[in-house]
Amino acid sequence: MAGIDKLLEGFKRFRHNIYDEKPALFDRLTKQGQSPKTIVVGCCDSRVDPAIVTDCDPGDLFTIRNVANLVPPFETIGNYHGTSAALEFGVLNLEVENIIVLGHAQCGGIRALMNQAPGTGQHEGFVPSWMNVASHARNRVLSRMHGAPLEKQSRACEQEAILVSLDNLLTFPWILERVAQGKLTLHGWYFDLEHGELLRFNPDSNRFEAFS
């Protein structure tokens, strides 16, 4: 129960240091509801919490987390679309102004994708099937970095997968419409866990660069 005890002690600190110290904020959130301006699509990785990395207050971010911070392409086949449903709510109901795809270094999902043997087809389990969303990123990296160490390939794929997700966001008609109208802006960010740096994708240079 040590892990649970730590969480309960953490809640006590939250209640004392944040909740009790910001009564106006929580009163507004209670009475007026949430009105975040930004969606963050982040990874489930316990080391990369978007609200902590960006030092945000409650109510600032509408956060969607899944394995490897992926956005699947728009489609209406099947039964369960957790990420797509969250995007729909954030864009159509909350009318956010930004969507950030936040990738990170040492991503286990991307490492699993890169370790997949070429031409092996479908694998059992939910994770391999989900990671197929980023298969194009893997193929691009392998085509231009054939023979490179796995560590370098994985880092490149972590960033390439962000670009795949940005492209997939534009397959949602209500996202594409708002981007075209200038009401919504898409961003690709990469948190370098090893060096504590935040990079952003610059479409002009076609590279991930440090914030100036």
Give Rg in angstroms: 19 Å
Q: In which range does the helix fraction lie? A: 40-55%
- Put simply, the count of helices is 9
Overall pLDDT, averaged? Answer: 94
The succession of helices and strands, N to C, reads HHEHEHEHHHHHEEE
Give me the count of strands.
6
The CATH superfamily of the largest domain bears the name: Carbonic anhydrase
What is the fold's blueprint, element by element?
Layout: H1 2-19, H2 23-32, E1 38-43, H3 50-53, E2 61-66, H4 82-93, E3 98-104, H5 108-115, H6 126-131, H7 135-144, H8 150-169, H9 173-180, E4 185-192, E5 197-202, E6 207-210
Parallel strand pairs: 1-2, 1-3, 3-4
Antiparallel strand pairs: 4-5, 5-6
Can you describe what's shown?
The chain is an alpha/beta fold and 212 residues long. It has 2 domains: 1-33; 34-210, Beta-carbonic Anhydrase, Chain A, CATH 3.40.1050. 45% of the residues lie in helices and 17% in strands. It has 9 helices and 6 strands; from the N terminus they run H-H-E-H-E-H-E-H-H-H-H-H-E-E-E. The protein has a 6-stranded mixed beta sheet. Strand 1, helix 3 (50-53) and strand 2 (61-66) form a beta-alpha-beta unit. The chain is globular. The model has no long low-confidence stretch (mean pLDDT 94).
